[in-house]
Amino acid sequence: MTKKIDWRGSSLKDLRNFPVDVKKRAGYELEQIQQGLPPTQWKSVNDWGAGVVEIKIDAFAGTFRDVYIAKFEDAIYILHCFAKKTQQTSLTDIAIIKTRYAEIVRERQRRENERRY
Fold first, then answer.
1. What is the average pLDDT across 1-28?
2. What does residue 44 show for φ and ψ, rounded to 5 degrees?
3. pLDDT digits (tens, 9 = 90+) for 22-60
4. What per-residue confidence (pLDDT) applies to 113?
């Protein structure tokens, strides 16, 4: 079963602004995830939220990241897509990821509560 992708905030727009080779690689990686396979180069970043994963894409134009969560059955949630400019992920990028993650958790809790009543 192929999972749908749920783009959060400006993540799709941000990805579309990546260089062509990076967009192609990101597309391949996301397709792998949709099929239930792991991306090529990734790491779990549970400090940002339970189940959050960061895809690493190194290209001639720089280093890029796609951050997602795929632990839910209904969709893969793309939290943030960005160019990484330093060794550490910026506090701004981390705040965006955590905020979007929290929004998903709240939405899912609200839906679950509505189903119960």
1. 96
2. -75, 140
3. 999 999 999 999 999 999 999 999 999 999 999 999 999
4. 87
What's the farthest any 2 CA atoms get from each other in the chain? 53
Q: Which residues of 66-96 are buried (b: 16+ CB within 10 A; e: fewer)?
A: bbbbbeeeebbbbbbbbbbeeeebeeebbeb
**What CA–CA distance (Å, rounded) separates 5 from 103?**
16
Domains in the chain: ranges and CATH: 4-116 (3.30.2310.20)
Distance between CA atoms of 23 and 98, rounded to whole angstroms?
A: 24
User: With a threshold of 0.90, does the pTM exceed it?
Assistant: yes
Alpha helices (runs of H) in the chain, residue ranges in sequence order? 11-16, 20-34, 91-116
Q: Which residue carries 């059955």 as its tokens?
A: 73
User: 55 near 42, Cβ under 8 Å?
Assistant: yes
